[in-house]
Amino acid sequence: MFPTLTIENTLPKDGDSGTLIGRAWLPDVDGPSVVLLRNGDVFDISKASATMSGLLNSADPLAAINRASGEKIGSIKALLANTTPDTRNDRLPYFLSPIDLQTIKASGVTFAASMLERVIEEKAGGDPAVAEAIREAIAAEIGASLANVTPGSEDADRVRDVLTEGGMWSQYLEVGIGKFAEIFTKAPTMASVGTGSEVGIHPESTWNNPEPEVVLVVSNTGKIIGATLGNDVNLRDFEGRSALLLGKAKDNNASAALGPFIRLFDSSFNIDDIRKMDLSMHVEGADDGYVLSDGSSMRYISRDVEDLVSQTLSRNHQYPDGLVLYTGTMFAPIDDRGEKGSGFTHKIGDIVTVSSNKLGTLTNRTNLSTLAPEWTFGVGTLMKNLSNRGLL
């Protein structure tokens, strides 16, 4: 059973005192609306902006929100309780992924710890038992030396030389400590899922894991205007076989989770809060008693968030509807869930929570991508729906 979402287990520590916006499904209009959370209630502000993308790409999103005369659609408590699939009443509103037309991008290998794990995955060919042997052979010597390396620096070049001389050259070294960051498309526009949703694992994957991440919300001018949480669901065995399988490892039905809400920068939240943000992650098995508690900290990211954004959106590549950018994680689970040397992998029914004090908690249940609800509401359907409602 999916745990009930509540204000206490979903909202930031300071509740809805910050500027929290999202999207909700409204059965009365058979479509989504942009919503604002304020004073315990949820307000439909779609008359001010039909899409989240339009709102966030306006000249002053905060001013637009403050001017909006939203219509109350219910309490935060009621919508959260109706968001999980097991007990949902389809005749009542519920929360969705907080984004719509934005491009869904991600950056990888942005933490030294995760870079080392990617190198190990590649050398192991996606075999967790082989990975354990390689990990033991190199972690003590190399791991500590990566902690304070600045990508593209002379120190980074020296570390790369050491690993290369030891037969450990990898394309992951290039993006981990080289000049250029790894930036890829995580999912198609409109394909993300929100809190209370199932996340999908490819049925042929036997070695996979969640990735707790801060997700930057970026306007079409390249300005970071807020953030949310993300679970960058990853298939380690697929990516370990070949880096060319990155698309198969990262982009599957329901594989991009975002939420619970977008928190915009205002007097209570700014970019420095992101730079020092700590994330906690909790995985609880459905029927095997398994529990994993771990996390990630933006304090240890190898590339600054503004550098990642500048490498994503520039004169070289534009995103007219804006974008969100997963920033990577230092979380790379190596503890065995089953037999020795098998490492961690998901089981169907795992409940995964990603939390931070300023952004709240994103909660999802793990399923196969072939069993999670199909993605059917795309850009064309959204435009038709908004047009029929007189919002375009």
Q: What would you note in describing this structure?
A:
The protein has 2 domains: 100-110 and 183-388, Fumarylacetoacetase-like, C-terminal domain (Fumarylacetoacetate hydrolase, domain 2, Alpha-Beta Complex), CATH 3.90.850.10; 112-177, no CATH class. Helix 4 (112-124) crosses helix 5 (128-142) and helix 4 packs antiparallel against helix 7 (171-177). The longest helix has 15 residues, at 128-142. The chain has 392 residues and is of the alpha+beta class. Helices cover 25% and strands 27% of the residues. The strands form 3 sheets. Strands 1, 2, 3, 4, 5, 6, 7, 10, 11, 13 and 16 form an 11-stranded mixed sheet that branches. A 5-stranded mixed sheet has the order 8-18-17-14-15, with no helix packed on it. It has helices spanning 52-56, 61-67, 76-81, 112-124, 128-142, 154-165, 171-177, 236-241, 246-250, 271-275, 305-312, 379-388; strands spanning 20-26, 31-38, 41-44, 71-75, 94-95, 103-108, 182-187, 197-201, 208-209, 212-218, 224-232, 234-235, 256-264, 278-284, 291-297, 323-326, 351-356, 360-368.
Per CATH, what is the topology of the largest domain? Fumarylacetoacetate hydrolase, domain 2
Bulk shape: globular
Considering DSSP H and I runs of 4 or more, what fraction of the residues is helical?
25-40%
Largest sheet features = 11 strands, mixed
State the domain count: 2
Mean pLDDT, all residues: 92
Strand fraction: 25-35%
Number of DSSP E strands: 18
Order of helices and strands: EEEHHEHEEHHHHEEEEEEHHEHEEHEEEH
Poorly predicted ranges: none
